Amino acid sequence: MESISNIGIGEAQQRVEQTPSDLIAPPTATGTYQVDDSVIDAFPVKGTTVVHALNYGESLWGKTAKVIVRLPDGDMENYFLKVGTTMAASLVSTARAVLKPCAGRDPWKYRTVHVRRDVGDQPAEPVKLASRLADLHQRSKSPTGKFGFHFATCHAKIAQKVDSWEDSWCTLYSNHLGHVMNLAKPILQWPEFDIVCKLTLEKVVPRLLLPLQSEGRILKPCLVHGDCWDGNTAMDIRTGEAFVFDVCSFYGHNEYDTGNWRAPRHRLSNKAYIRNYKKAFPVSEPEEDWDARNLLYSLTFNIGNTIYIPGSSQRQVVYDDMTTLCKMFCASDLDEALKALQEDTKGDCDQEQATAGAKESGSGEEEEEEEEEVI
Description:
two-stranded antiparallel ribbon; alpha+beta; 12 strands; four-stranded antiparallel sheet
């Protein structure tokens, strides 16, 4: 199984994942959907009326609908509606941020075009997707000149820890990754996992991300999609353009978006995607760290998959990936931590055995005393 980087796919991931060979089935419209008055009031053209609405496609984290409307001039339009709570607010805010770099168009008007697009092949074609994504990254501009966002955007159920403005990408990513790890720890209850999490944050993240902004290097905060996988990209049937949707954006390192392409379960793991992206947006310096950075950026996506996707098989995968990174950059620290854990575990087992033995011995003495009393 091939990897988009020079760091191979681990054995656990090879066992549980394979790249689909077929395209994603297009979304279908079914049943009737009741549109709330607040949605009607939010249409960009006042006086728009709903002709009818249908349930459209599927979403793990909300409800989706196709809304056919009549504009005041009599023209008909189609809109895509996604309903949720915090996740919906996140989607609206980040979608507006994504639309700002689009050349010379009012954000609401462009959003009108965007939401009524007809979904064609998924994922989008490699050359066109790479070009459009790189264009977003290059044309976007952080309002503060820093990394982060003005509130916590949502990746599925995870409220991402990106709601601060940081001069250092290393700091923001450490906050983000550490938050995801903390969500996973009480669910997995796995001491070895806790160890590699700690070392990844304390040793690996600084080793790989601080050099991006050292020795005179400047790293531009780019608006990232935040969840760029097969199902959030498509070809527009009418225009033939590639487009993306379901964003959970923030301003970060552009390479973050390609971290999710490493997983073989995604069709975007096809090397044509990363090859064309690198042509459109050259690799950041130090270039020799790209492979390890790509693996590091995959962690937030795979840990999220582990704890929130029903039937996920990523538990061992994320542990192995962090272990790989730790062996690359802090092997002795990893050996010492695992050895200490083993000794602590052995000590606990010895104590439990001693306690159990004492209880059995005490029980035997009590039985002898009872026999003497009977005699």
